[in-house]
């Protein structure tokens, strides 16, 4: 696939989102150019341990669409501003990717892709974000930084049993500065990297099944 990484992103087959199958939600893939390299930095958030859902996990800025949001794009921009202080006016939205269903929460997630300059400082909201990770797409695509793991190894056998997850299921994973990215977010990143012609771990056969 030719062209710079930014060119490839702008040429992605963005879609007009259809009706959600579950609770409408959005996430923002906020991309920033890396000075002196054909690469793009991505904003990920580490969730604090006290949350009811996804505690301690790494995700993309985002959440449920609220009544005051004009649409899923507006929701993604609002959530990114609330969670990490990213000014919506600084983001050039390129479009949306296909919805992805998250069975554990019944969210039907609209991934919104936007570009910003990456210069303004990001500040985590302490209620929602324990830390901010900013890997580049080429770092994520490096085989040294990704692979697959069984849910038992990720969660531990006790959590596996508590969540009634079959022991033979696996997840794509990424390692970002020693932090493990797995589950829904890792699956979404696999599809995104694949669409750009970058290396990514394989998705299990059950991945992305809709209700």
Please work out how many helical segments DSSP would assign.
6
Q: Give the percentage of residues in beta strands.
A: 25-35%
Shape: globular
How many discrete structural domains?
1
CATH superfamily: Nucleoside Triphosphate Pyrophosphohydrolase
Largest sheet: 6 strands, mixed
What low-confidence regions span 5 or more consecutive residues with pLDDT below 50? none
Span between termini: 33 Å
CATH topology: Nucleoside Triphosphate Pyrophosphohydrolase
Can you tell me about this structure?
The chain has helices at 5-10, 72-84, 137-141, 151-155, 157-162, 183-195, and strands spanning 23-33, 40-42, 44-46, 58-59, 62-64, 92-96, 100-102, 107-115, 131-133, 146-150, 170-176, 179-181. By secondary structure, the chain is α+β, with helices and mostly antiparallel strands. The chain has a single domain (5-195), classed as Nucleoside Triphosphate Pyrophosphohydrolase (Alpha-Beta Complex).
What's the structural blueprint in terms of helices and strands?
Elements: H1 5-10, E1 23-33, E2 40-42, E3 44-46, E4 58-59, E5 62-64, H2 72-84, E6 92-96, E7 100-102, E8 107-115, E9 131-133, H3 137-141, E10 146-150, H4 151-155, H5 157-162, E11 170-176, E12 179-181, H6 183-195
Parallel strand pairs: 1-8
Antiparallel strand pairs: 1-2, 1-5, 3-4, 3-9, 6-8, 7-8, 10-11, 11-12
